Amino acid sequence: MLLGLRQRPEPARVGALVRVLAEGLPRWRQRPLLVPVPSWKRQGNPLPVLVCRQLVRQLGYRRADLLERSRPVLGQHHLGRSLRLANQEGAFHCRRGPRLGEALGRPVLVVDDILTSGATGCSAAAALECLGWQVVGLLCLARTPRGRSRTDRSPSGP
């Protein structure tokens, strides 16, 4: 379903997914700042931004487009964990650090659609933390099954 929403975004469906996701979020003293993962493709993945929009609408969180891609990366669906980490290393640049008092106690959440190895989220968090943002987590709509990737399947396996 998420892969289909990447191609044909439906805000109502994303809103329903975010309502379920929001039920499991902790209650912070300050509302988190949401930072969507940007795509390097011209027609990139719209889901991180749509998730942020829904969280702003539903929970009153704030969104800041602090990240930009510093270079294109390889498509990761064929890569294992170690190659994904290497592929994403240094792939993001943070546009600015926190303004005076802006980051004090405010949690920052990196927002993406699907978590596989964590390489994209780790690289995005590292770029933000380098300029002083306090990243407390990665928020995703789904995760791939642990320990099982495309490269792990045998030709005769499921």
From TrEMBL:
Signal sequence, start to end: none
Limits of the Phosphoribosyltransferase domain: 87-152
Domain of life of the source: Bacteria
Keyword GTP-binding in annotation: no
Keywords: Glycosyltransferase, Transferase
Pfam families per UniProt: Pribosyltran
PANTHER family hit by this protein: DNA UTILIZATION PROTEIN YHGH
Family named by the database record: Belongs to the ComF/GntX family.
Protein name, as recorded: Phosphoribosyltransferase family protein
Lineage of producing organism: Bacteria, Bacillati, Cyanobacteriota, Cyanophyceae, Synechococcales
